[in-house]
Amino acid sequence: MEIVVVLVPIMLMLVTGGIVLFNWAVKNGQYDDLEGPAHRILYDDDKDLIPDDAITGLEKTRRSASDAQDKPKTNTETDADADPSKADEAASNRGNSST
Predict the structure, then answer these.
(1) Pair 93, 80: CB distance under 8 Å
(2) In a domain, 42, yes or no
(3) Which residues are CB-neighbours of 50 under 8 A, at least 6 positions away?
(4) Which ranges are annotated Basic and acidic residues under compositional bias (predicted)?
(5) What's the sign of the alpha-carbon dihedral 82, 86, 92, 97?
(6) Which tops the pLDDT comparison, 73 or 22?
(7) What is the domain extent for residue 43?
(8) How many domains does the chain have?
(9) Would you tell me the crossing angle of helices 75-82 and 84-95 to the nearest 10 degrees?
(10) Residue 76 within a domain
(11) Is residue 27 part of a domain?
(12) How far is CA 97 from CA 34, 44, 57, 90, 92, in A?
C-alpha cells in the first residue's frame, strides 16, 4: 500500500507534463497540416538518374520537353523581351555570325 503513495504523484506529474506538451504542440502549429508531408513524398523533385542512352520512346519525348522548359534564356533573348526595339537588333546580330 505504501507504493500507491509514491505512484499516484508520479502519475499525476506525467499526466500534467503530457497535457502541457500537447498544448505547446497545438499552439506552435504541429497539428496544422497532417496530410501535407504524406503527399509531399509522392512528388518527384529529383533529376532523372537514367542515362540518356537507356531512354527510349515516350520517356525520350517527355525528357526533351522538360529540358526545353528548364533551359535558361540567353542575354540576347532577355534583352529582346525587355525592349521591343532591341528585338530587331538581336535578330540582326544573330544573322551576322561572321565574327
Answers:
(1) no
(2) yes
(3) 59
(4) 59-76
(5) negative
(6) 22
(7) 36-60
(8) 1
(9) 150
(10) no
(11) no
(12) 58, 41, 36, 11, 9
The dihedral through the CA atoms of 75, 81, 82, 85 has a sign that is positive
- Read off the amino acid at residue 37: P
Task: Scan for cell 529529383, then name that residue.
Answer: 46
Map 12-74 to HEC letters.
HHHHHHHHHHHHHHHHCCCCCCCCHHHHHCCCCCCCCCCCHHHCCCHHHHHHHHHHHHHCCCC
Cα separation, 56 vs 29, in Å, equals 46
Radius of gyration of the chain (CA): 31
Q: Evaluate whether residue 90 is within a structural domain.
A: no
